[in-house]
Design brief:
single chain; about 325 residues; mainly alpha; two-stranded antiparallel sheet; 15 helices; about 80% helix
Length: about 325
């Protein structure tokens, strides 16, 4: 609970700095704001672990999908509202509204989140060394999973992370249009999220991950070929499907593959690999755009996605929705 509160507090301070930057027009506020928002993501593995430990293994798939569904439903309205506010009143109003929402989240977590007591142990330096060794050399049955996560983070950085910037720079999309695209993705995700647990139960995690990358390829390839708002809007449908298939499945697969005592650390290690390996990808995507045009980072993402899909097929071994060697 304390880590979740810390993450929410860091995100609140990040939004305050963005707000100050918008009011004063001082760019220096943006740098610590970005750092704080990145640090706020440290709470995400804790949340994933908390969900896994709050239900039985049988209900875990349903729990992850339910939580994701609840988190995506507001996305049906929020991006459209944010884009409309940004176009009419500037980004300052959007950041102020974000601060209000974050403060509400903080109050709800403090007031209503309950967790059982746990035994505390003293901190020792040998535990740090052991943690570093486990991070650099994870368990054999998890190594390919972490490599896949790192590869996926590169794909995300080359494509989706910079996609709004590509649309704005190449086609001059407004904030409202970007909001509409996000709404379309959210609607597709919500609808697909309803049937994702059945797909996982019937076909298993490995097939579901491959299906996710197939729809991802349709999305990235379609957007790379599109040159107008309507076409790009249509291809937000496979984007939502890919997200709805990938996120709960990858979380479920990892949660099922480690013990309860290892779960939070294992999920944190995923964030570490994704952040450490994937952080240059948006920069590289921007360089590709500047030098070779709109489609270059998207087709690079498409090619790496083919590699990732083959990697899932050949290297990710799953039995009973658990990773095995």
């Amino acid at each position: 609970k304390s880590f979740i509160i810390l993450g929410s507090g860091l995100m609140t301070f990040s939004l305050i700095l963005y707000l100050l930057s918008g009011i004063t027009l001082v760019f220096l506020f943006v740098i610590p704001a970005v750092v704080l928002s990145a640090l706020a993501s440290l709470s995400m593995p804790i949340i994933d672990s908390l969900i896994a430990e709050s239900v039985t293994s049988f209900d875990r798939s349903k729990a992850y999908n339910t939580i994701m569904l609840a988190s995506v439903i507001p996305g049906v309205i929020a991006p459209l509202l944010g884009g409309l506010l940004a176009d009419r009143f500037g980004f300052v109003g959007v950041f102020f509204l974000g601060i209000v929402v974050q403060l509400m989240i903080l109050v709800l977590v403090v007031r209503f989140l309950r967790e059982r007591s746990f035994a505390t142990t003293s901190f020792a330096m040998h535990e740090v060394r052991s943690f570093i060794n486990r991070t650099l050399s994870p368990s054999p049955h998890l190594r390919n999973f972490y490599r896949l996560s790192a590869l996926d983070s590169i794909n995300v950085g080359l494509g989706p992370v910079i996609m709004n910037g590509l649309f704005t720079s190449a086609f001059g999309f407004t904030n409202l249009q970007l909001g509409i695209l996000s709404v379309a993705t959210a609607i597709s995700t919500v609808i697909m999220q309803i049937i994702t647990p059945r797909i996982i139960d019937q076909w298993g995690c490995k097939i579901t991950l491959i299906l996710s990358y197939l729809t991802w390829l349709v999305w990235i390839g379609g957007v790379a070929l599109s040159r107008d708002f309507t076409s790009i809007l249509v291809f937000q449908i496979p984007a939502g499907i890919a997200i709805a298939l990938w996120v709960p499945t990858i979380r479920l697969l990892l949660a099922n593959s480690v013990t309860r005592s290892e779960r939070a650390e294992a999920m944190g290690r995923v964030s570490f690999y994704r952040g450490f390996i994937g952080f240059p990808a948006p920069f590289l995507g921007g360089l590709l755009f500047e030098n070779y045009g709109y489609s270059a980072p998207l087709w690079t993402c498409f090619a790496l996605s083919l590699v990732a899909m083959y990697y899932i097929y050949s290297q990710i071994n799953v039995q009973d929705n658990r990773l095995v060697t």
